Amino acid sequence: MKARLFLFVVLTAIAAGPSRAQIGLEVNVVSGKVLKHTSKFNAPIPAGSNAVELALLRQTTGTKDWEQRRSYPLWGLGIKYTNYGDANVLGSAIGVYPLLQIPIVRGNNLEWTVRGGLGIGYATSVYNRAPTWDTINNAIGSHINNFSSFATDLRCRLNGRWSLQLGVAFTHMSNGAMKLPNLGINMYGAQVGLRYWPDGDRRGRIDRERPVLKNRFLLQMRGGIAITEAGKTDGPTYPIYLGTVYGSRRYASKNKVLLGVDYSYYASLYAFQRNNEINVGEERANSWKAGVFVGHEWLFGRMAFIAQFGYYLKQAVNGQDKIYQKLGYNYYLIRSEDGPLRELALSVLLKTHNATAELVEYGLTLGL
Fold it and tell me: 0.85 cut: is pTM over it?
């Protein structure tokens, strides 16, 4: 049933998508394996996993300044069906995500690209104690999850409409601990695919003089919140309050480097200490974390992709790895070169410790 539903979506997209100029269709087949990224992963690792990806692509032509600065990237919508190779435990997943592909090296008939997308996924099999017992799968605790997809390809242009690509792909699925367990499922593998442009791939591109943006420095602040399930499966949920202060330096009119500090307060850790009479009188002092981070932000008009790498200066009562990461998006409501408020953005960030997700942060970011 799930395979037929996916096939229906594919055929519908094929029928509707390529009817307009600059719209292309791409299909990739992935052969890989589930990555056991932590010793806590109880589920048996299948001998092999596979996936099929369909992507509707839009070729930018330079009508906006950022498209020229990014060497005319592609953006679009991806749908990926993944069979993890074990129907009884890990099951399968369907992910839907906006994607962006950027050229690294581009020639007349060969190019090397990198592509990423963050969206939403549905897992068919999750940890469950009743009525259908599946306690071996401690990787995923909810059907609805974050689904992230990354790939890099070497692509060969066969003719004006068709191209063939070969590369590697990686996907991550987790819910940011909103529902336990939440170790997440990571899959890596090799992929091969075809891309088709119904109206040809040699479309006109605008190459006009564009303004050079100042390499300005901004003081930036982000306030956010996350919701996690504490303790064990089917336990209570608690908020996590997050605050970030950092400096950003724009360069090359299209990127920013970041340096700052992170703060996070865990209501669940406060409750845990109170309930178990741990650190009596000092529960709040042991319920927050602080760290320093460096990061990078890639600007694409109103959208931006963020990657941060941090190191804890202070741990809470549940000490974790010293290193953490954040990956996500900014969507800019305000981007101005003048005035007291230069930037205002909605932010969504996935915080991880290596390949294990800790939380999903929803926040508001401003720049002065």
Answer: no
